[in-house]
Design goal:
binds FE2/S2 (inorganic) cluster, binds iron/sulfur cluster, 5-stranded mixed beta sheet, 6 helices, 25% helix, 15% strand, alpha+beta
């Protein structure tokens, strides 16, 4: 297999033809944050949190979907890159509910972890939230789309791994939404014993009903003596 020599953060390294910048960087222990990317799914470059600086390129490039080329010189944590990532997280948080502290996914939320790593504090952008009713009709899955960041991992996971094609994208711009059928609440038998999309979701938008029930039970537990 043809090898390609590149430089990341001043260190020379090699990758195989067809590898992305992200794959080479991760292989060398360089941590680039990702949200819409999953190694099990086709990359789509939706969230832009994985951007890096490539010398000679006018714009920052998404590392999860950009293949390496011979002699590429890459900076994964330059001031320009960190500023762009911070702005992306702030924009996502500006449309995210404010109840992160009581979210059932709290410790596993990838968005929250990235925000903490980037030391995101006060959001500079005007807050504009999307509110959707919680969908808990299904006995197998609860959707809280107010927490959805439109990464489409659930859509791809259901298509590519489960091969059930339950989800689709609908509407445009700020109204973009992951929908089921003609924007109906999710309630499908095919979801029984399946948590493929839940395990891919980087936020608290998808969860198992029993996890929420367990969490609520734990919170209401009162020790009397
Ligand atoms: S639980 Fe499984 S079948 Fe149901 S929407 Fe998610 S991935 Fe598709
Ligand atoms: S529900 Fe979760 S996995 Fe699906 S698009 Fe929203 S944040 Fe991504
Ligand atoms: S992780 Fe690369 S664009 Fe989302």
């Amino acid at each position: 297999m043809k090898e390609i020599a590149i430089t990341i953060n001043g260190s020379q390294m090699r990758g195989r033809y067809g590898m992305t910048i992200l794959e080479v960087a991760k292989g060398k222990g360089i941590d680039i944050p990702t949200l819409c990317h999953s190694p099990e799914l086709t990359p789509i470059g939706a969230c832009r949190i994985c951007v890096v600086e490539v010398e000679g390129s006018r714009t920052l490039v998404g590392s999860c979907h950009t293949p390496i080329t011979q002699g590429m010189v890459i900076h994964t944590h330059s001031p320009k890159v960190l500023e762009a990532r911070k702005a992306i997280v702030e924009l996502l948080l500006a449309s995210h509910p404010d109840n992160c502290l009581v979210c059932d996914k709290a410790n596993q939320c990838e968005l929250r972890k990235i925000a903490a790593d980037l030391e995101v504090g006060l959001i500079r952008f005007r807050s504009r939230k999307r509110y959707y009713p919680i969908e808990d009709i299904s006995p197998y899955i609860v959707r809280d789309l107010s927490k959805c960041i439109l990464c489409r991992r659930c859509v791809r996971a259901c298509d590519e791994i489960k091969k059930a094609g339950v989800y689709a994208m609908a509407y445009r711009g700020f109204d973009s939404k992951v929908v089921v059928d003609l924007d109906e609440p999710l309630d499908k038998d095919v979801c029984r014993d399946c948590d493929v999309c839940i395990s891919q979701c980087p936020t608290g938008a998808l969860s198992r009903p029993y996890e929420i029930a367990k969490e609520k039970k734990g919170k209401s537990l009162v020790i009397t003596g």
